[in-house]
């Protein structure tokens, strides 16, 4: 059986560390990114099974990343995460094609 490949993009290194540990503990592979630009570059040569992205990041925010990803890879599931949950952002994420919108409760 093939392992799932999960990519995580978050500017907070502690969030990346926690998610990477949790994902690999479940037997999945995980690649982490600090910047959305790095994810967009990596998507030119490789596709994950799922992309988890923080919504608030410097340079390119999670919703802008979501839009770019969906334009080039419309079937790639993107899960948006946030420490600052708000209904407008959740609705916007779903309207732009997010697979899910999760509050960071960890």
Automatic annotation (TrEMBL):
Keywords per UniProt: Phosphoprotein, Transcription, Transcription regulation, Two-component regulatory system
Modified residues (4-aspartylphosphate): 54
Parts of the chain that traverse the membrane: none
Alphabetical list of SMART domains matching this protein: REC
Entry-linked SUPFAM superfamilies: CheY-like
Stored InterPro entries: Bact_response_regulator (IPR050595), CheY-like_superfamily (IPR011006), Sig_transdc_resp-reg_receiver (IPR001789)
Gene Ontology BP annotations: phosphorelay signal transduction system
Start and end residues of each Response regulatory domain: 5-106
Record's protein name: Nitrogen regulation protein NR(I)
């Amino acid at each position: 059986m093939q392992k799932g490949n999960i990519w995580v993009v978050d500017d907070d290194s502690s969030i990346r560390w926690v998610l990477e540990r949790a994902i690999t503990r479940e037997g999945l592979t995980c690649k982490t990114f600090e910047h959305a630009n790095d994810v967009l570059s990596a998507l030119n040569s490789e596709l994950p099974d799922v992309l988890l992205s923080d919504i608030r990041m410097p340079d390119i925010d999670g919703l802008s990343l979501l839009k770019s990803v969906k334009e080039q890879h419309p079937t790639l599931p993107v899960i948006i995460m946030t420490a600052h949950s708000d209904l407008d952002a959740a609705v916007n994420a779903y309207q732009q094609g997010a697979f899910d919108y999760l509050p960071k409760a960890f």
